[in-house]
Structure to design on (269 residues):
């Protein structure tokens, strides 16, 4: 992929990977795995047709550090500011898991910036299992304070039945990156999730074409999320990748890229 650069955005600097030409695609970095969307950005279906912009949020990789809890509305505003700094007035925007919450907020708060919105399994909010999800987040935050970041990372991966070695095989450097960035995940992202809300009033502000991509093996919690997205955004397209789980940007990269770029071709900028 192209060389990373640090871009001044407001009072901070964010590390940005910006490559290719064509309609701009902004891939909002998700939580914990800083380069989870790198294989998608590098996939020929994306890299050969679009200007792919993948950036690291505050506290991740070589972006500036950011002490204290995060804020999803602030992250959305920072994404809009980054687009302005890069000279991008409007773009196709993709977010997955945690960063799907940022993408939703960006589309609601700055609709002039978002030409299409693609969501890969946002966090539970307004679903039957949302309360249990938040209880799990609170427990992980307590565990981090009681046992430290490294032990909390192991605990989080065990909750999802994931392991560092698997991610290391799927994305070289991912294991070391998770260890490097775990503090940002536990101290910024998880507290932000506890304060995140997105309801029908927010959704009514989103008129752009939308797509939800989910994994058929992601489990009941994300099946509820999929239905919630389709209820809130009834105009959204829906793709389910059979056999894929919540790590689908890494485990089903080609199928995600195909569904994503097919959607973009139907809604050119």
């Amino acid at each position: 992929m192209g060389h990373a650069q640090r871009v001044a955005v407001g009072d901070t600097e964010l590390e940005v990977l910006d490559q290719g030409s064509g309609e701009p695609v902004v891939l909002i970095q998700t939580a914990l795995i800083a380069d989870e969307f790198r294989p998608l950005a590098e996939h020929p279906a994306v890299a050969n047709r679009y200007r792919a912009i993948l950036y690291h949020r505050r506290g991740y990789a070589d972006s500036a550090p950011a002490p204290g809890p995060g804020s999803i509305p602030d992250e959305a505003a920072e994404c809009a500011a980054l687009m302005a700094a890069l000279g991008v007035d409007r773009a196709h925007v993709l977010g997955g898991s945690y960063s799907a919450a940022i993408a939703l907020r960006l589309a609601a708060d700055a609709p002039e910036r978002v030409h299409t919105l693609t969501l890969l399994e946002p966090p539970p909010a307004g679903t039957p299992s949302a309360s249990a999800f938040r209880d799990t987040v609170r427990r992980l935050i307590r565990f981090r304070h009681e046992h430290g970041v490294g032990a909390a990372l192991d605990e989080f991966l065990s909750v999802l039945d994931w392991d560092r070695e698997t991610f290391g095989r799927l994305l070289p450097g991912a294991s070391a990156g998770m260890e490097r960035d775990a503090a940002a995940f536990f101290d910024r992202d998880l507290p932000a999730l506890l304060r995140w809300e997105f309801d029908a009033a927010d959704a009514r502000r989103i008129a752009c074409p939308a797509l939800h991509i989910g994994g058929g093996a992601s489990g009941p919690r994300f099946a509820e999320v999929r239905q919630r997205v389709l209820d809130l955004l009834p105009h959204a397209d829906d793709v389910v990748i059979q056999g894929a789980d919540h790590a689908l940007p890494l485990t089903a990269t080609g199928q995600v890229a195909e569904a994503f770029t097919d959607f973009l071709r139907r809604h050119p900028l």
Notes: The chain has one domain: 4-266.
